[in-house]
Amino acid sequence: MNKFRRLLGNQGMVVLSKPGFTWSKLSALLSNTTLGSFGISTSTNIQCLSATDQKKTQLTPYNPISELQPFVAVPIIPEGTASFNPAESEIKFASKFFTPKDESYKIKHIKTAAEIDKLPKYDIPEVAFIGRSNVGKSSLIHTLFSKAPITVLRKLSVSSKPGRTKALQLYQAGGAFTLVDMPGYGHNMPSYFVNCVETYFQKRTKLVRSFILIDAVMGITETDLIGLQMMEEMVIPYVLVLTKIDKVNRHQLVRNLMSVMNYRDEHSRFCLPQPFLVSAHSGAGIELLQTFIAYVTGNMLVTGS
Ligand SMILES: Nc1nc2c(ncn2[C@@H]2O[C@H](COP(=O)(O)OP(=O)(O)OP(=O)(O)O)[C@@H](O)[C@H]2O)c(=O)[nH]1
């Protein structure tokens, strides 16, 4: 039975991966090349903070975590792990991939497909956005690409009705990267979903990072485990993104963020330690996420602040 189908059929009995993961264990296990595929450079371009450094270094104000951290007793980004903390100039540089002023960065919708064999093949790095139905994928992509032509934005069907995104939607920012919006899992999931998504992860050789979206209002739910388990079983490096942070008060946000972080600490081996917090409505966290996408797709070198 394929892994994903097994998870879907067994939602109440998901077997979680082994606890005890630390970044250093992973570093020891993987070669530099593989670490590169986590977007964690072995050079100094991403800071690896010691406990003392971390106290000294302020997270960029572009990161919503910087406002939350004073209210949380433990470091949200674990001590001794890599932290993506670009300078203002780097954030500005990355914005050009999302604010096309000339043809070379033009944002286009290039394909809608439910069958992987129908996807175009190219040499451009790819990132994928995945999450349960209604988590806010289309809204987030809409906000990331808010400066794209209206014809592109119309393709992003935002709806309060879960399960609107039925096929893979591919958007390309010039020759810089491709961003893939995937159908949501859970409610109203299309029947071909399992094959489509699992085959995508097996076959797309240019995929450099997957972003798993979790609704900040709900925190981590059993449906979210479908995507998280799939990443772990298929050994796919991924990043957690908490969506809709404008909808929760600080207390709820801290509580739900910590439940996600607990999951990460105990069960994940392939998740970037740093979560991203965003709101498609207020725009919070969007520039930081844009910069991270530009960075993991190899379009810029972040030197840190
Ligand atoms: N307040 C708030 N609402 C949001 C945000 N992002 C999405 N929503 C709302 O959440 C609902 C679902 O958003 P979509 O972007 O369509 O979600 P999706 O994950 O693409 O949904 P599927 O098509 O089911 O996969 C819509 O009513 C959005 O307006 C956000 O950042 N803040």
TrEMBL record:
Q: Name one GO molecular function term.
A: GTP binding
Cellular compartments per GO CC: mitochondrion
Name the UniProt key words of this record, in alphabetical order: GTP-binding, Magnesium, Metal-binding, Nucleotide-binding
Is Metal-binding given among the entry's keywords? Answer: yes
Any Pfam family: MMR_HSR1
The family database entries (PANTHER family) matched by this protein are listed as: GTP-BINDING PROTEIN 8 (PTHR46498:SF1)
Name recorded for this polypeptide: GTP-binding protein 8
